[in-house]
């Protein structure tokens, strides 16, 4: 990565971290995927029950594999025949892993979901949330974050899942009501009433969509 971009990301991350702190959330900056992995593991106590929604960024830093190799009880829903039962276990988990579709410079998290298992767990349930967020997801404000979530994250995921939505064909959100739409629930996390619940690791890399 260009050294000027690295410097820019490091400075911008500090702004985002201050915004998160003002919203009763904790922010951290990792210079690379390896540092992000070690930081995430330090936030997840041994013996804890850990689960996650879909999160490409979490996989990209190698966190699920590291949890399986360690002394945590990682619930991998991909290994469960009953996906609903696995998803429901998130609400009483010690730690829930996720990324976000976008984050503002002032620390607001924006997420779009189709089945709501991810956004509902972010809103309530798990005792601790650990977000892995690439600096490519930082937007200037909520409007920009929603646009990114709809036109980049949702569109790319619709293509990845092979869904028959207008955006999967045009590459841009068409504000559709397709049966396949994954833009069903929008969640803006602007404050945490529970101190110590939400932890956001900003990674100096392009992660996820």
Give an account of the 3D structure.
By secondary structure, the chain is α/β, with parallel strands linked by helices. The chain has a single domain, classed as NagB/RpiA/CoA transferase-like (Rossmann fold), CATH 3.40.50. It contains 8 helices and 10 strands. The chain has helices at about 5-20, 35-40, 55-60, 65-70, 85-90, 115-125, 140-160, 165-170, and strands at about 25-30, 50, 75, 95-100, 100-105, 110-115, 130-135, 140, 185-190, 200-205. The strands form 2 sheets. Strands 1-10-7-4-2-3 form a 6-stranded parallel beta sheet. A 4-stranded mixed beta sheet has the order 8-5-6-9, with helices on both faces. Strand 5 and strand 6 form a beta hairpin. The two termini are about 20 Å apart. The mean pLDDT is about 95.
Q: How many individual helices?
A: 8
Q: What is the subunit arrangement here?
A: single chain
Q: Approximately how much beta-strand content do the residues carry?
A: 15-25%
CATH architecture: 3-Layer(aba) Sandwich
Order of helices and strands: HEHEHHEHEEEHEEHHEE
**Overall residue-averaged pLDDT value:** 96
Give the spatial strand order of the biggest sheet: 1-10-7-4-2-3
- The CATH class name reads Alpha Beta
Tally the beta strands.
Answer: 10
The major pleated sheet works out as: 6 strands, parallel
- Kindly report the name of the CATH homologous superfamily: NagB/RpiA/CoA transferase-like
């Amino acid at each position: 990565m260009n050294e000027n971009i690295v410097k820019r990301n490091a400075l911008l991350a500090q702004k985002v971290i201050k915004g998160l702190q003002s919203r009763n959330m904790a922010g951290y900056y990792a210079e690379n995927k390896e540092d992000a992995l070690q930081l995430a593991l330090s936030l997840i106590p041994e013996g804890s029950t850990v689960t996650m929604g879909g999160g490409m960024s979490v996989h990209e830093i190698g966190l699920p594999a590291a949890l399986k190799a360690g002394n945590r009880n990682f619930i991998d829903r991909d290994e469960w025949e009953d996906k609903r039962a696995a998803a429901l276990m998130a609400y009483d988990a010690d730690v829930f892993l996720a990324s976000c579709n976008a984050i503002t410079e002032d620390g607001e998290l924006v997420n779009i979901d189709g089945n709501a298992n991810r956004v509902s767990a972010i809103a309530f349930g798990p005792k601790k949330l650990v977000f892995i967020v690439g600096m490519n997801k930082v937007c200037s404000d909520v409007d920009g974050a929603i646009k990114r979530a709809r036109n980049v994250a949702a569109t790319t995921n619709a293509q990845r899942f092979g869904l028959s939505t207008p955006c999967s064909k045009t590459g841009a959100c068409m504000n559709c009501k397709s049966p396949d739409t994954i833009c069903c629930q929008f969640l803006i996390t602007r404050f945490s009433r529970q101190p110590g619940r939400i932890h956001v690791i900003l990674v100096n890399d392009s992660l996820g969509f």
